[in-house]
Each structure stands twice: as C-alpha cells, then as structure tokens.
Amino acid sequence: MAELIALYPGTFDPITNGHIDIISRAAKLVDRLVVGVAVNIGKGPIFSLDERVALVEAEVAPIAERLGIIVEVRPFSSLLIQFAREVGARMIVRGLRAVSDFDYEFQMTGMNYRLDSEIETVFLMASERHQFISSRFVKDVALYGGDISSFVPPRTAAATIAKLKGHS
C-alpha cells in the first residue's frame, strides 16, 4: 500500500499551541506529514520565511520523535494544490477554530477540489482550549507586552517577543 502523505499548510507567524495540537493529531493519521510554511507576504509576517521554517522545525521535532513518524517542514510559494502534488500529498489537513473559519475553508476546499479532485481536504476541529488562539492575536498581545506563554511554545514565545522588540 502506498505511503499516506498529508500536507498541513500555514503561514505559522508564529506557530501557536493550536497549530501544534493540529500537527500532533494529524501526524497520528498518516505515514508522513509535511508542514508547509507559506511565503504569504500579503499577511506581513514578522518572521522571515527561514525563521518561520526554523521555528516550526524546532517545535515539531519532539512530535515526530514521540510518534515515530516523519514530520517534514518545507517552505512553499506556489498554489497550495501545486505544492501538495509536489510533496506527494493525497490529503490536505486544515484546522477549524470557529464557524467563521469554515466559510473561508469551504470556499478554498471547493477551489482545490476543482484543481485536483484526487487530493482530499480533511478538517480537524481545534481543541476547545485552543479555539480562540490565532497568530495575529498572539502578535498583538506580545506587541503590547502581554503574556503569550499559554498560546505558544516557550521557544516561540521568546523569539516572538525578541522580534517584536526590534520592531517597536
């Protein structure tokens, strides 16, 4: 049987505990998980692409080790469906926090299906303790000196605070 590869894409600016939760849960469902870090200049990331890839790699390494599965982190700047084909993914994993996420994700899933009906999109609901966390909120809280330690892993919290101090 062919290896089941899934792709979990995002900007990860910064990676949050919600992202980590989805990655941990998705990794249990597949043989290999590719975490795709999108360039996404439109969102005005605070971290460079290389910095985001490095942070995601550091944060997912313990998951891969604990589960004994390959979790590969790769940057991408193409259409999501093109990148999914490139990495051999048969599944795209998306996390849903609230009904407001669903409308956008529903539209994107329809478009991706039209582009390649062989690649399925699977939605994982955010755990209740992570449903309100977003990278944007984390950056806003950190920018104004709030405590982000319950929203992101410690290494990411330190990097985010240090990066935002340089921007203020």
Could you please describe the fold and organization of this structure?
This protein is α/β, with parallel strands linked by helices and 168 residues long. The protein is globular, with a radius of gyration of 16 Å. α2 links the parallel β2 (32-38) and β3. α1 (17-27) crosses α2. Strands 3-2-1-4-5 form a 5-stranded parallel β-sheet, sandwiched between helices. Helix content is 46%, strand content 19%. The model has no long low-confidence stretch (mean pLDDT 92). The chain has a single domain, classed as Rossmann fold (3-Layer(aba) Sandwich).
CATH architecture descriptor name: 3-Layer(aba) Sandwich
CATH superfamily: HUPs
**Distance linking N and C termini:** 53 Å
Q: How are the strands ordered across the major sheet? A: 3-2-1-4-5
Tally of alpha and pi helices: 6
Beta percentage is 15-25%
Unreliable stretches (pLDDT < 50, length at least 5) are none
Largest sheet: 5 strands, parallel
Indicate the CATH class. Answer: Alpha Beta
| H/E topology pattern | EHEHEHEHEHH
- Assembly form of the protein: single chain
Helix content: 40-55%
Rg over CA atoms: 16 Å
Shape: globular
Q: What is the CATH topology classification name? A: Rossmann fold
Number of domain units: 1
- Give the class from helix and strand content and strand pairing: alpha/beta
**Mean of residue pLDDT values:** 92
Strand count: 5
